[in-house]
Design brief:
about 160 residues; mainly alpha; 2 domains
Length: about 160
């Protein structure tokens, strides 16, 4: 008698489905059917996956909105000019600039050896760098490297000497 190829599986979600296991070797079918029984059926798995993706997207949108608001408040408080570039690049660049500069303050002033007066000079060097792409490119930089990064910024990263703020 041949080992059956279609196995009834009572899934963990409560649904029952017939699983065609003919593609598996005969000696692996029973074990695989047991494994399937410990999982949700395909329809429930896909529904959960879609819900998780939607929840993740909603969470991420909330995080981005909070980061964007924090960056806007920071830009106003510290008289930072608006960035230049495409709409999406400007939003992303503003978040990157905010995160890098605030982390640099912590690394260089709070935990480091730069004085508040030295930071004020460094902050003045941040303002002219208004190309959003430059800040996006620096998003993974070590915050303590900000002075060196600003010194390496080119004229295309500083489109004007007198930014409007």
């Amino acid at each position: 008698m041949a080992v059956k190829t279609v196995w009834p599986v009572d899934h963990a979600c409560g649904h029952t489905a017939d699983a065609d296991l003919s593609a598996r070797p005969a000696d692996q079918r029973a074990g695989y059917a047991r494994w399937l029984a410990g999982r949700d059926c395909t329809a429930c798995w896909e529904a959960t996956r879609t819900q998780d993706a939607e929840a993740t997207a909603a969470w991420l949108a909330g995080q981005r909105a909070a980061e964007a608001e924090a960056a806007r408040v920071w830009e106003v408080a510290f008289r930072m000019p608006l960035l230049e570039g495409g709409e999406r690049a400007v939003a992303w660049g503003a978040r990157c600039r905010h995160q890098l500069v605030t982390a640099a303050y912590a690394a260089l002033v709070t935990e480091g050896t730069i004085s508040e007066a030295g930071w004020a000079e460094l902050e003045d060097g941040v303002r002219p760098v208004t190309r959003a792409g430059w800040w996006i490119d620096q998003r993974e930089a070590d915050p303590a490297d900000l002075p060196e990064l600003l010194a390496a910024a080119t004229g295309t990263d500083r489109p004007t000497e007198n930014p409007h703020f």
